[in-house]
Design brief:
The protein folds into three domains: 88 residues, NAD(P)-binding Rossmann-like Domain (Rossmann fold), CATH 3.40.50.720; 208 residues, UDP-N-acetylmuramoyl-L-alanine:D-glutamate ligase; 132 residues, Mur ligase, C-terminal domain (Protein-Tyrosine Phosphatase, Chain A), CATH 3.90.190.20. It contains 17 helices and 20 strands. The strands form three sheets. It has a nine-stranded mixed sheet, with helices on one face. It has a six-stranded mixed sheet with strand order 15-16-20-17-18-19, with helices on both faces. Strands 3-2-1-4-5 form a five-stranded parallel sheet. Helix 2 links the parallel strand 2 and strand 3. Helix 6 crosses helix 11, helix 6 crosses helix 12 and helix 16 packs across helix 17.
């Protein structure tokens, strides 16, 4: 069996190692450059590879192709493979049959990283032998090749779910859905929504789907679609006999006739959106029979995720917060919503078709100044130019942070929550967040 892997990044290398171990004839092809450490691993494992090109003769003879999530379906080589009827799948689809571990799959436009990390933290703290992978950390395929975990918590992007055929998580979570990556879905929101719901398409009556019952897009999908999985909703406003909700500042969860309650003030994560992430993760913990005391302790000591509403420093009584992971409007909505002080907001980058009007009421209420950090800030200026007292454009992080310090006074918050991708001025959102943290430390 010939396995061709398009893309020599983390998921590609992991798939190559697992494929080789399972007796496939493996070939890795990357249209860009492969990192040196990954090349060494390929050489050590005797895996043939190429970079900066796709040699068609070596690719179009594949029995199966694993495509890295970053490569769009529209790319010429992928179109040729599909035309030849060669299956093009994601790493998750390739790897899953080689493990009998319990799989918890988590998707959504926002909150999926926090929910994934928190779920993993809950299970690991309870002593379970659990792996963490998918869109974060070490490749799922690589872990299956090297380790023997009893369960996996996987963060799954819509691109990874686009490449599944039989993949079936025992427990699936959809944290929420808001317009994102529409450039990859022919600018049709319904295509993107369908893509997220692929997480439940192979689930049976023995499986579970945990979802946000307050989410409009999810509610719309359920009007015309069904899943066989048992449904476990969570909500900030509704109550359920089976599901999770917040009532009188208590998180209440009822699953399989088992009750769990906890005061929200004891949960380490702050903000309404994080209450949802906590309800989703705790629902998993309940399904996995984790003891109540362990769940309470884990929820109260969880540290959160880097670049997601991360408190950096307080300088002259001004709190600096790094929310660089907010790459769309919905994520920034949550960030602004959780601000309790006058806010200097650093925003901008590569816009994925954003509608900033959704933020208007929050900006009027909370934001005293806006610092635009992007190559093209026209849209942001057009929307908010008349709403805030102060609007400034900068083209690097040091200037953004220095300007923010000038515009802020005691008791204010400086919030980096860009609502955009980072590729105009930074390598990725991590680079953007790290530059912010460094600039704050240099003040």
């Amino acid at each position: 069996m010939r396995l061709v892997i398009l893309g020599g990044g983390e998921s590609g290398i992991g798939t190559a190692i697992l494929g080789k171990k399972k007796g496939y004839d493996v070939f890795v092809s990357d249209f860009g450059k492969i990192k040196e450490n990954y090349k060494e691993i390929l050489v050590i494992n005797g895996i043939v590879w190429e970079e900066e090109k796709h040699t068609e003769d070596l690719i179009l003879n594949a029995d199966v192709v694993m495509k890295s999530p970053g490569i769009p379906d529209k790319s010429p080589i992928v179109k040729k493979l599909i035309a030849k009827g060669i299956p093009v799948i994601s790493e998750i689809e390739f790897a899953a049959p080689f493990t009998d571990a319990t799989i918890i799959g988590i998707t959504g436009s926002n909150g999926k990283t926090t929910t994934t990390m928190l779920t993993h933290h809950l299970l690991k703290s309870a002593g379970l032998n659990v792996g963490l992978g998918g869109n974060i950390g070490k490749s799922f395929a690589w872990q299956i090749a090297d380790n023997k975990y009893d369960s996996y918590v996987l963060e799954l992007s819509s691109f990874q779910l686009d490449g599944i055929i039989n993949f079936r998580p025992h427990i699936a979570i959809i944290t929420n859905i808001s317009p994102d990556h529409l450039d990859r879905y022919d600018y049709k929101y319904e295509n993107y929504i369908d893509s997220k719901f692929r997480i439940t398409m192979n689930q049976t009556e023995e499986d579970y789907l945990i979802y946000d019952a307050d989410d409009e897009a999810i509610a719309e999908w359920f009007k015309t679609h069904t899943t066989k999985a048992k449904l476990i909703p969570f909500s900030l406003t509704k109550t359920f006999s089976e599901g999770a909700y917040i009532k009188n500042n208590k998180m209440e969860i009822s699953i399989n006739q088992e009750e769990f309650t906890m005061d929200t003030e004891h949960i380490a994560l702050e903000g309404k959106h994080n209450m949802k992430n906590a309800m989703a993760a705790t629902s998993v913990a309940k399904l996995m029979q984790i003891r109540k005391a362990t769940i309470r302790e884990s929820l109260s000591n969880f540290q959160g995720v880097e670049h997601r509403l991360e408190k950096v420093l307080k300088i002259q009584n001004v709190q600096y917060i790094n929310d660089s992971k907010a790459t769309n409007v919905n994520a920034t909505f949550f960030a602004l919503d959780s601000m309790n002080t006058p806010t200097v907001w650093i925003v901008g980058g590569v816009d994925k078709g954003n509608d900033y009007n959704e933020l208007m009421s929050l900006v009027r209420e909370k934001v005293k100044a806006i610092i635009c950090l992007g190559v093209d800030n026209k849209k942001i200026i057009d929307v908010f130019g008349n709403v805030v007292d102060m609007m400034i454009e900068v083209d690097n992080m040091n200037d953004a942070v220095r300007m923010a310090q000038r515009l802020s006074e005691k008791g204010d918050t400086v919030l980096l929550s860009p609502a955009c991708a980072s590729f105009d001025l930074f390598e990725n959102y991590e680079d953007r967040g790290n530059q912010f943290k460094q600039a704050v430390k240099n003040l």
